[in-house]
């Protein structure tokens, strides 16, 4: 099994897609709940597996292009087939995943093996009939959107008009129409004329969930810009600029690095955005640009370890964050296979662990605690014992139920609410 | 997770130390840490070139950190202090080669100085007197501004540079080979082993002229020679030639 690099539920929560470092996409489907076994509340089983991207070689630059899937985004379902976008560093692909459970039989011009029949031997015409067959799920690439990004794609986002989507790399954001693969509009370009002046890159971007003209993008300097595509073709001038003033007491050489935003997500309501930087998750109200309305500490005990985390490159890890269906709880990952949930209403938070050793299937997860100093209690784990190679970067939350998917390196965990 | 020999005390929460008498006593420790952070950052930027697909965001963040340190070093007069201590005779050769190896050497805070070049030799795993290695790196960085400005950036004497370059290239390779197994392992522990051989490194050097990521590291231009870009690029053609020779031999 390969390292999972992205996890995403579709709009109904029926399907869960994962992309991995080897360019594969695996889709899980929730089985129908049956009255006979009420305790098995719709488990997820593998539905389809396909190779989305292959490794490529850029001959001009003598560089390999990784096949790792950076992001998957589902399109809303409009017919029997499912559509999703998957992207690696350079190329976005639209995949159609459809079921086939009938097969036509009785062709005139070819026999059942597919071999052509001798026309002179055909004495009568028949109408082919559809006969049932074993269910087959096939994935076909319907569109390939290539050659539009010089830098590495970090985000894709489907617009609420369902006709367009955007892809963002380190310096540019392009707007695509699903039907057109040989052209895209460049809507944001922050590449300086002189590359020597480059000090800031785009780290994530997303469309507003309802307003098809609005999108946001975050930067490595901890800022978020909201843009309106109606104002200009090139949205270099933002409509809103979100930035929290720096806390002078916390200033260090690592301040900028830890302020770099690794993920930005609109709430389902469209009223808020959530950003993840290295140590915190912040919730912003779109109507207030000068500071976030909520800040949650994910693992503040790492603040005194930044030097070491810089040395081993962990400080550059890009954690994602997600909202639950009602925007009342937010979740993000941490190290040691820990992930954290914050209830925005009760202000309570919990740390859980995704690990086979420490939890049996169907067992209720036990809250974990990191001991920050002084005496370590029995169940606590000390900061120095944390395993920094076990990081949870990618998580997903079912759109309406309390089901979460957590990617721990090359394992996928699915957790559900306790059934009463 | 923690590299031995590297002080764990971090910079967080420390305020800028003003030039008070009491402050000066505390400065050496802070300066050493700052210097080691600078060295670490420069090595990270150099490693970027050896990777096949470097991460632009990471490079930009590291380059910004380097710039921040250098600005602070100039501001609080540390740079002048170091300049007066002109002790070690840092090898010009080493400076030249490191520059060409790593475009990030360009982030010399508007061409003021190039600290930390000697650190290519620095043994991160060393448990011994941290101070001695620090002094060495500090001393060699003294040579940097003068030497760089006179030779590297102006490229008045390409012939001489070529010879210097070849010598220094050998030194770099020697350095890598002679490093103790531990240090090499740790230095490149984040790097996929397949990228770790000579071929890739040479490829990395030759691809310095490519756009994209490599351009991003040219964050600072040299004020002494605005045409340094093209000069360096032509020098890189020489580099290709030299590298060919090395590979063939």
From TrEMBL, chain A:
Q: Which UniProt keywords apply?
A: Repeat, WD repeat
Q: Which SUPFAM superfamilies match?
A: WD40 repeat-like
Gene Ontology CC terms, in alphabetical order: protein phosphatase type 2A complex
Against PROSITE patterns, the record matches this protein to: PR55_1, PR55_2
Query: Is Cell wall biogenesis/degradation one of the keywords UniProt gives this record?
Result: no
> Where does the source fall among the domains of life?
Eukaryota
GO MF annotations, alphabetized: protein phosphatase regulator activity
The protein's matches in InterPro entries, at most eight in alphabetical order, are given as: PP2A_PR55 (IPR000009), PP2A_PR55_CS (IPR018067), WD40/YVTN_repeat-like_dom_sf (IPR015943), WD40_repeat_dom_sf (IPR036322), WD40_rpt (IPR001680)
Q: Which PANTHER family match?
A: PROTEIN PHOSPHATASE PP2A REGULATORY SUBUNIT B
Q: What family, per the record?
A: Belongs to the phosphatase 2A regulatory subunit B family.
Name assigned to this protein: Serine/threonine-protein phosphatase 2A 55 kDa regulatory subunit B
From TrEMBL, chain B:
Per UniProt, the ranges with Polar residues bias are 127-144
Q: Where is this region: Disordered?
A: 112-144
| Name this protein carries in UniProt | CDCA4 protein
Residues annotated as domain SERTA? 30-77
Per the record, its GO cellular-component terms are:
nucleus
Which organism was this protein described from? Platysteira castanea
Superkingdom is Eukaryota
**Pfam families recorded:** SERTA
């Amino acid at each position: 099994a390969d390292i999972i690099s992205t996890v995403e539920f579709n709009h109904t929560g029926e399907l869960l897609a994962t992309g991995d470092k080897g360019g594969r996409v695996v889709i899980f489907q929730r089985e129908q709940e049956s009255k006979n076994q009420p305790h098995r509340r719709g488990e997820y089983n593998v539905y389809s597996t396909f190779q989305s991207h292959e490794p490529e070689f850029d001959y001009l630059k003598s560089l390999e292009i990784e096949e790792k899937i950076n992001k998957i985004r589902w399109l809303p379902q409009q017919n029997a087939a499912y559509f999703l976008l998957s992207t690696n560093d350079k190329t976005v692909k639209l995949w159609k995943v459809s079921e086939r459970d009938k097969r036509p039989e009785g062709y005139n011009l070819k026999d059942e093996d597919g071999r052509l029949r001798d026309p002179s031997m055909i004495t009568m015409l028949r109408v082919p009939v559809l006969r049932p067959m074993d269910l087959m799920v096939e994935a076909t690439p319907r569109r390939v959107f290539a050659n539009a990004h010089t830098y590495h794609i970090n985000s894709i986002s489907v617009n609420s008009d369902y006709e367009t989507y955007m892809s963002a790399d380190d310096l540019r954001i392009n707007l695509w129409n699903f039907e057109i693969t040989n052209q895209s509009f460049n809507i944001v370009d922050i590449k300086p004329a002189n590359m020597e002046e480059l000090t800031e890159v785009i780290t994530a971007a997303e469309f507003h969930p309802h307003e098809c003209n609005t999108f946001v993008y975050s930067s490595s300097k901890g800022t978020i810009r909201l843009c309106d595509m109606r104002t200009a073709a090139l949205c270099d001038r933002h409509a809103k600029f979100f930035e929290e003033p720096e806390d002078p007491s916390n200033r260090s050489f690592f301040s900028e690095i830890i302020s770099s935003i690794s993920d930005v997500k609109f709430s389902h309501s469209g009223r808020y955005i959530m950003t993840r930087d290295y140590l915190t998750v912040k919730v912003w109200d779109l109507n207030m640009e000068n500071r976030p309305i909520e800040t949650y500490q994910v693992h503040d005990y790492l603040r005194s370890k930044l030097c070491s985390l810089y040395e081993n490159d962990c400080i550059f890890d890009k954690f994602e964050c997600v909202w639950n269906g009602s925007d009342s709880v937010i979740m993000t990952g941490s190290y040691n296979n820990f992930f954290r949930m914050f209830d925005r209403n009760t202000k309570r938070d919990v740390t859980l662990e995704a690990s086979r050793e420490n939890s049996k299937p169907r067992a209720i997860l036990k809250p974990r605690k990191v001991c920050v100093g002084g005496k370590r209690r029995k169940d606590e784990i000390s900061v120095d014992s944390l395993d920094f190679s076990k990081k949870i970067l990618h998580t997903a939350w079912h759109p309406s139920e309390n089901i979460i998917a957590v990617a721990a390196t090359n394992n996928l965990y699915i957790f559900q609410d306790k059934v009463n | 997770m923690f590299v031995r020999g590297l002080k764990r005390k971090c910079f967080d929460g420390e305020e800028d130390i003003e030039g008070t008498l009491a402050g000066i006593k505390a400065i050496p420790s802070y300066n050493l840490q700052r210097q080691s952070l600078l060295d670490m950052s420069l090595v990270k930027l150099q490693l970027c070139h050896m990777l096949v697909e470097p991460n632009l965001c990471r490079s930009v963040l590291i380059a910004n950190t380097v710039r921040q340190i250098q600005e602070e070093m100039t501001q609080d007069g540390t740079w002048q202090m170091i300049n007066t201590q002109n002790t070690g005779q840092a090898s010009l050769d080493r400076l030249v080669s490191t520059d060409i190896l790593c475009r990030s050497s360009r982030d010399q805070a508007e061409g003021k100085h190039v600290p930390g070049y000697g650190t290519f030799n620095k043994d991160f795993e060393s448990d011994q007197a941290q101070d001695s290695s620090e002094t060495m790196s500090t001393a060699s960085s003294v040579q940097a501004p003068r030497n760089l400005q006179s030779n590297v950036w102006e490229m008045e004497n390409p012939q001489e540079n070529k010879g210097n370059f070849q010598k220094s290239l050998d030194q770099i390779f020697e350095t890598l080979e002679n490093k103790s197994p531990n240090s090499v392992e740790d230095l490149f522990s984040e790097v996929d082993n397949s990228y770790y051989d000579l071929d890739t490194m040479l490829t990395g050097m030759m691809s310095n002229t490519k756009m994209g990521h490599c351009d991003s590291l040219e964050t600072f231009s040299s004020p002494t020679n605005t045409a340094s870009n093209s000069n360096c690029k032509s020098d890189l053609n020489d580099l290709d030639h030299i590298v060919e020779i090395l590979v063939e031999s």
